[in-house]
C-alpha cells in the first residue's frame, strides 16, 4: 500500500482554494556508562548537504572552555517533539511547505501546529496522528488579512520552550515560519531565550527576505543549535523548509564526560577537523 502523504492532501486543497538533551540510547550507554552530558548536532558540507559519516575522531568538544572527552557519537534516532508556528499574515503562504515538512519527517516526531492570529492559536496538539495533522494543515490556508505582531512570535517561542520543558521532551524542536519577523527591541526577548536554553530545544527559523530578526529569531537558532533559512518573496517555500527537515533528519547524538567534581557549564563549543564541514550545534546548554 502506498504511504499517504499530507502534501498530497494540501495540493488537492489548494486546487479547491490555494539540540538538546536525551538519555543515551542503549548502544551509547553500553559503550560508556560514565557519560554525563549529551548534545544533538548536525553537520553540512560546503554545498549545504548533510554530512553523514562523522566520527568521534573528527570532533573536539569543549564545555566551559575546557576540552572534554568524547565517549560516543551515533545517528540520532529518538523521536522529536516539534512545535511549529506559522506566522503568515493570513496568506496561507506556508501551507504546502508545512505539509511537505511533515511528510519528510513523518514517523520520527510528534507535532504541535499553531497559527499566529496574531496571538498563537493551536490547531494541533502534540500528535503523530495522520488525520489530526491533515486537519491542522487544512486550517493553514488563506484566512484573510491578519495583523502581524512582532512581539507575539517572541512570546510564542518562549511559551513553547517552557511547555516542552514541562513535558520533559527528550528531543525538543521549535520551528518558526514568518513573513513578519520579530520586534527588534523587546522587553520579553531575554526571558524567551532563557526559556529556550532551559528547555534544551533547538530553534529553527524560515523567514522572508526584508523582515527583521532580533534576539530570539536571529540569535536563538545559533545559541540552540538550530538553523536559519531565508526565502525571497515568490520562491517555492517547500524546498527552503526542506533544508530544516534535512538537518533534523540527519542529526547526531554526541556523548561526553566531565571530570569528577567539575560542575556543568552552559557554554559549549563543538568543532571538527574535517575541511569543508560546518557543525551546527548549540553554544548555550541547559544549566543543569
Write the layout of secondary structure elements.
Layout: H1 6-16, H2 26-31, E1 37-44, E2 59-63, E3 66-68, E4 70-75, E5 80-87, H3 95-105, E6 109-116, E7 120-127, H4 130-138, H5 152-166, E8 172-178, H6 189-199, E9 202-208, H7 215-224, E10 228-231, H8 237-249, E11 252-256, E12 268-272, E13 278-280
Parallel strand pairs: 5-6, 5-8, 8-9, 9-10
Antiparallel strand pairs: 1-11, 1-13, 2-3, 2-12, 4-11, 6-7
Helix pairs in contact: 1-3, 1-4, 3-8, 5-6, 6-7
Compose a concise summary of this entry.
The protein is α/β, with parallel strands linked by helices and 288 residues long.
Rg from alpha-carbon coordinates: 19 Å
What is the count of structural domains?
Answer: 2
Order of helices and strands: HHEEEEEHEEHHEHEHEHEEE
Sheet having the most strands? 6 strands, mixed
Using DSSP, what is the number of strands? 13
The CATH class of the largest domain turns out to be Alpha Beta
Fraction of residues in β-strands: 25-35%
| Widest sheet, order of strands | 7-6-5-8-9-10
Helix content: 25-40%
The CATH architecture assignment of the largest domain turns out to be 3-Layer(aba) Sandwich
First and last CA, distance: 46 Å
Shape: globular
CATH fourth-tier homologous superfamily of the largest domain: von Willebrand factor, type A domain
Uncertain regions spanning at least 5 consecutive residues: 8-35
The average pLDDT score comes to 88
CATH topology (fold) name of the largest domain: Rossmann fold
